[in-house]
Amino acid sequence: MMVVGGFIIGFGSRYAGGCTSGHAITGLSNLQLPSFIATCCFFVGGLIMANFILPYIL
Amino acid sequence: MKDQNKDFETRSLDTVCVNESHLQHKWYHNIKYLIVGLLFGIVFIKAEIISWYRIQEMFRFQSFHMYGVIGSAVIVGIISVFLIKKFNIKTIYGEEIEFHDKVFNKGQIIGGIIFGLGWAITGACPGPIFAQIGTGATIMIVTLFFAIVGTWVYGYFRDKLPH
C-alpha cells in the first residue's frame, strides 16, 4: 500500500503540476481556474479511494 | 546554461510563482528557510493534517476539520496574494515577486485523480510526508522513496503522456 500509494502520489502530483499545497492552497489563493479544476480532481480521486476502494482492501 | 534555462521553463509550467533568486548568499542565509520549514512542520502536526484518519474523515464527510484547515489556508492565501500584488511587496532581499498564471492541461484532471487516489491511500501529500516521518512513522520513508520514483517516472514519460 505504501509503495503503490507513494508512487501514485509522486506521479500524480507531477502530472497535475502541483500537490495539495501547490494547487489547492497557493493556486486557489491566486484565483487560478486550472488549480480549482485540479483540486476538484484531487477530491474525486480521494473520494473514490476512501469510499469505494479502501473498504475492500483494508 | 542551456540546461538551466530548460529547467526554469519546465518549472514555470508547474509553479504558481517562480521567484528564483539571482543573488548569491553565504550558507547561513539559508537558516531562515530552515526556521520557516520547522514552523511549517510544527503547524502540520498541531493541526493534525498529517493524520491518516483526518484525511479519511474528510473524504467520508465525517468531519469539518480538514475543510476548515484548507479553507482558512486558502482565505489567508488570497489575502496575502492580494496584498502582495496591491502593495507590490518585495522579497526579503528586495527582489520582485512575480506570479504566473497556471495554464490548463489535461494532466490536471488525470494527474489530479491519480494524486487523489494516492492521497487517500497513504494519507500523505508531498509536504506532510516529511512531517509524518518526523513523528516516528518511519514506514513513510518507503512512501517518500516511491513518491520520488513516481516523479522520476513522470519525468521519463512526460513527452508520451497526454497533456
What do you see in this structure?
The complex is a heterodimer of chains A (58) and B (163). Chain A is mainly alpha-helical. In chain A, 86% of the residues lie in helices and 0% in strands. In chain A, helix 2 packs antiparallel against helix 3. Chain A is globular, with a radius of gyration of 13 Å. Chain B is mainly α and 163 residues long. Chain B is 63% helix and 0% strand. Chain B contains 7 helices and no strands. Chain B has helices at 2-14, 31-46, 52-59, 65-87, 107-122, 126-134, 140-157. In chain B, helix 2 crosses helix 6. The longest helix of chain B has 23 residues, at 65-87. The radius of gyration of chain B is 18 Å and the shape is globular. The two termini of chain B are 27 Å apart. Chains A and B meet through helix 1, helix 2 and helix 3 of A and helix 3, helix 4, helix 5, helix 6 and helix 7 of B.
Strand content of chain A: under 5%
Unreliable stretches of chain A: none
The largest contact between protein chains, plus residue counts on each side, is:
A-B, 52 and 62 residues
Radius of gyration of chain A: 13 Å
Attribute tags:
heterodimer, A: mainly alpha, B: 163 residues, mainly alpha, 7 helices, 0% strand, globular, disordered N terminus
Topology record:
The complex is a heterodimer of chains A (58) and B (163).
Chain A: H1 2-16, H2 20-29, H3 33-57
Chain B: H1 2-14, H2 31-46, H3 52-59, H4 65-87, H5 107-122, H6 126-134, H7 140-157
Helix pairs in contact in B: 2-6, 3-5, 6-7
